[in-house]
Request: fold
Amino acid sequence: MYRIEEHPILSAFPKGKLVKFAYDGKTLEGYEGEPIAMALKANGVMVHRYTSRHSQPRGVFCAIGRCTDCVMIVDGMLNVRTCIIPLQEGMKVQTQDGLEKKEQDD
Amino acid sequence: MMMERFEVIVIGAGPAGLAAAIEAASNGMQVVVFDENSRPGGQLFKQIHKFFGSKEHHAKIRGFKIGEKFLQEAETLGVKVVLNASVIGIFQNREVSVMLGDRISHYRANAIVIATGASEKMIPFAGWTLPGVIGAGAAQTMMNIHGIRPGNRVLMVGSGNVGLVVGFQLIQAGCKLEAVIDAAPRIGGYGVHAAKIARLGVPFYLSHTIIGARGAEFVERATIAEVDQNWQQVPGTEKDLELDTICLAVGLTPMSQLARIAGCQVADLPQKGGMVPVCNAFGETSIPGIYATGDVAGIEEASSAMIQGKIAGAAISLAQGYLSAEDFQLRYASYDHSLGQLREGTFGHENKGRTDLKTTDDGYPLSQFLFRKGYLADGELSHYPGVPTSERLNQELMPVIECIQNIPCNPCQDACPQGCIVIGSTITNLPAINQSAKCSGCGMCVVSCSGQAIFLVDVNYAPGYAAISLPYEFKPLPAVGTSGVALDRSGAILGEAEVISVRKTAVMDETAILTMKVPVQWAMSARFFKQL
Reply:
């Protein structure tokens, strides 16, 4: 729903093949090689993690790997900057709760 | 330990770094460029608007195309660009530590160019950590690189060129730009950039700040309020906006950490945007052989960064014996002149932060209305040399050039095959209508104007009707015969209009010329067509 179908200046956005990945137990689709965060945004996902002390939601902020606000658990690894790590088929992406995965997830 | 050696190590593959690398390599030097990102080009590939300047500054070429050209040049010259490579230290004798994947490698260079650019500033407010609050750079990365709309309804905080340009791009990507706010009492960026979004109906709230963002899990609304002369919130002026995205464009800070690590002398210079390495005219820092160029040495436009990079590349080539003193002098003189041109004018170095300017350099009144509203008032038009007299407009088809600030830019002059537009050699001069030339209506000025400030007006199109030709960069492109409404400079609906011609060819580079038919009394006020 957030993918730009038609752009007046940019004729196409080069994309890899459409692949499936897991997000908090759900199956979503995204393009291989695009940053994980972009595939999530395209699916309407806004919250990437909750802070450890106050459990506040965080999402994409800088989108270039600098601020680390968008980190999630990817294939079991904590603190993965989803805005710069490319999506791969079958990846398991989980909302991060402080320094753990969120309890209710799968 | 093996340590690979290079003649030149450039840190950062943005416009400044690539320019430095290309210049040094073109003189025969062996150059490597390290960049921490997975793509080269820095922010250039996110810039989809046509650049300002003159031919030598790549004017009227879109940023990403300049980036493509630079990468090609670098490749042809054998410049090695290493991506995903974070430089983590610069040590004595120009040793550089680079993190590549999980390994740290060490290199040594005869000369180092620090071209690390800048990072975005942020302003904290209640709720600023909510998902949906993003930097303007993030918006550009999402929509212009990855084809993802950052949101549906967006508030832009900051009316500098970044806020204005990204605001326009958000609309091009299909977002609704709800408003542009700025704590300052006047618009900070170019009037032409403001006018482009004002005529689409985007309101500017000046002397306004953001009080807070609210939403349970992500942004659902924002509260803005007026501030007084002392930047204090005026009670009772709060306004709630329903939106899902807040985009921050509140300035840039030089990323001078590596220069500091290296031990270069730094200084906190507000006019350069913060802590910057102290450099000589060629970009050399206090440590011989270490140069800093582009935004890291002082926040400017990408066009300036490219020239600064070339100067550093030439200076290194001279120091290392790859360029003779005479050749260097020639090149430096030309680059320095080119750079000087970009630093002139209403927004130039000497006028930075000034709010007291009343006239342009060439003696025309500066519209205070434009600074406050984002567009020109109808009554002001006749003050400017790019606006034909009503006698002339009544006789023939004419360009109307609504460019009224001294901006270093002249493609319109070069674009007109009839010689209708005169700027002269001082490229910050306002474009003027040549009284003795005749407009053919080709529209090349319309599409060459990076500020989209030129319109063709034919008041004799048909009895009672005028034809207005305007630049159009949105999808869908209306077809001939489409009826809709004409909007004035503020985006207010004047009334019915019909598209009578749509021109788009390769040379126009994606800027279409849309011609609409409007009642003749709106000839000098209708400036946009909206499909209903």
Summary: The first strand of chain A starts at residue 18 and ends at 23. The longest helix of chain A spans residues 36-42. Chain A touches chain B through 33 residues (CB under 8 Å). DSSP finds one helix and nine strands in chain A.
